[in-house]
Specification:
72% of the residues lie in helices and 0% in strands. It is mainly α and 468 residues long. It folds into 3 domains: 177 residues, no CATH class; 179 residues, no CATH class; 76 residues, no CATH class. Helix 10 packs antiparallel against helix 18 and helix 10 packs across helix 19. About 3% of the residues have low confidence.
Length: 468
């Protein structure tokens, strides 16, 4: 069940009515947990058993860490290893088990997305990071373990987030589940712009641009011009797709009287790779920073006399982005994509250009942005490519363009992509320069609502990040 399905449009209003009919906090949390398990187990009910048992494990481990202080670190590592083991098994076993892969290929089911949904629990990468973060925070003493299992289980399986995040910390979301919630008009006021934008970005922009992108990346050997168009299209598609899920997730949470993390902050305006990761998938970036980057850096700084300064600067971002690549997918292209950003961060740092860097003057800022945006698009080419061999072959052997007709086709596709990008740019300009002009906002939201209604019966493929 996805946010853009008809089943969800029936499921959520019924759940919302029952949720607010109950006055008691415990009733709301129990109903939220029940709804989350129904939502999560819609495709394969046994997925609920995995999330329930792993949640139960972490719940008791955290309580044990509080009760037996000398064993807290050991219990924390047991939880981390078991969670990572589950994640790695689910992600990699079915790809490296050659006999299973051969059987799936022979039966014609190897590329069956529905089958893979059943075999590989959706959203596993997201809720595993939630649970690991909880254990680490309890061990560090920055969060007190909860004795309320229902609240904790509802936090882990929180249905607006369970499939594609954001990855909210317990300090942010779990603490809100401890508190009583009463309906306020602000809930609807905060929710509706996010819901309208979320449906619009997914149904109108992401799904439409996806058609162009898929046709380009299915070509055996596109020209470099076509490849660039495909890279620009995918940059727009993945931003619209993933940010739309976050918008819908946050909007649904507001309707439940809960506030969740903002996951995107105009990432394509970044001037450095560090700034990009501070703006893109913010909840994942902050998780990687707090639980991987900083711990590695602290260890290296303790050995400062024995380790060259260049390694102290280089190793933390390289390892962090390598882990990011592993988390995003299975295969060499994801590892290369992660290391690509690690190398970019290191190079920028060695040049003295850090995340908060901003050159003086509009012209310098423009060229700094143009360079960074080009690097981002190239990164998306690695991410989206059929394979590294396919991308290498296109970059080395394909011509710039083959004929005039191909140039015309590229221009037409680029105009189409630019049109959909413009719809998002207008929203950003309104936010920045016309926040007090309510009539302009009303006109914009009316326009995108009408477009969404027109597109709503078109195909609605899953959100990109469901596969991670």
């Amino acid at each position: 069940m996805g946010f853009t399905t008809y089943e969800f449009l029936v499921f959520f209003p019924v759940f919302l009515a029952l949720y607010w009919l109950g006055k008691n906090r415990n009733w709301k949390n129990l109903l939220l947990l029940t709804a989350s398990y129904i939502f999560y187990g819609w495709i394969a009910s046994w997925h609920v058993a995995i999330i329930f048992l792993s949640t139960l494990m972490d719940y008791f481990l955290a309580l044990g860490m509080q009760r037996w202080k000398p064993k807290a670190r050991l219990l924390m590592w047991i939880g981390v290893i078991l969670n990572l083991g589950l994640l790695l098994f689910a992600k990699y076993y079915f790809f490296f088990n050659t006999s299973l892969a051969g059987w799936l290929s022979q039966t014609g089911l190897g590329g069956d997305i529905f089958l893979m949904r059943i075999i590989l629990p959706l959203g596993l990468s997201f809720y595993i990071l939630k649970k690991i973060g909880y254990l680490l925070d309890v061990q560090r003493g920055t969060f007190k373990p909860t004795s309320d299992f229902i609240a904790y289980a509802a936090y882990v399986s929180f249905f607006p987030q369970v499939l594609s995040g954001p990855i909210d910390r317990p300090q942010k979301l779990l603490t809100q589940l401890y508190e009583p919630r009463a309906w306020k008009s602000e809930n609807l006021y905060n929710a509706w712009p996010l819901l309208v934008m979320g449906f619009f970005k997914k149904l109108v922009i992401a799904n439409t641009v996806q058609v162009i992108v898929e046709q380009i990346f299915e070509l055996a050997e596109p020209s470099k011009i076509i490849l660039i168009v495909g890279g620009l299209g995918f940059a727009l598609q993945i931003l619209a797709d993933f940010s739309s899920y976050t918008d819908l997730s946050r909007g649904l949470a507001f309707l439940l009287g809960l506030e969740t993390t903002e996951n995107f902050n105009k990432p394509y305006l970044s001037l450095t790779p560090g700034e990009f990761w501070n703006r893109w998938h913010i909840s994942l970036s902050s998780w990687l920073r707090d639980y991987i980057f900083f711990p590695i850096r602290r260890v290296l700084l303790k050995q400062k006399k024995a380790i060259p300064d260049i390694l102290i600067q280089s190793i933390p971002p390289l390892v962090t982005m390598f882990v990011s690549g592993l988390w995003h997918g299975v295969g060499w292209k994801f590892i290369v994509w992660g290391l690509y950003y690690g190398i970019l961060i290191v190079v920028y740092q060695l040049l003295g250009v850090r995340g908060d860097w901003k050159p003086q003057g509009a012209i310098k800022q423009f060229f700094a942005w143009l360079i960074m945006f080009s690097l981002i698009v190239f990164g998306w080419l690695i991410f989206r490519a059929v394979s590294l061999d396919w991308l290498w072959n296109v970059l080395i052997h394909s011509p710039l363009y083959r004929n005039t007709n191909e140039l015309i086709a590229s221009f037409v596709l680029l105009v189409m992509i630019g049109f959909y990008a413009l719809l998002l740019i207008i929203k950003s300009l309104l936010d920045r320069y016309a926040s007090n002009y309510t009539n302009l906002y009303a006109l914009y939201y009316v326009g995108i609502t009408l477009m969404t209604i027109v597109f709503i019966n078109s195909s609605s493929p899953d959100f990109i990040y469901f596969q991670f």
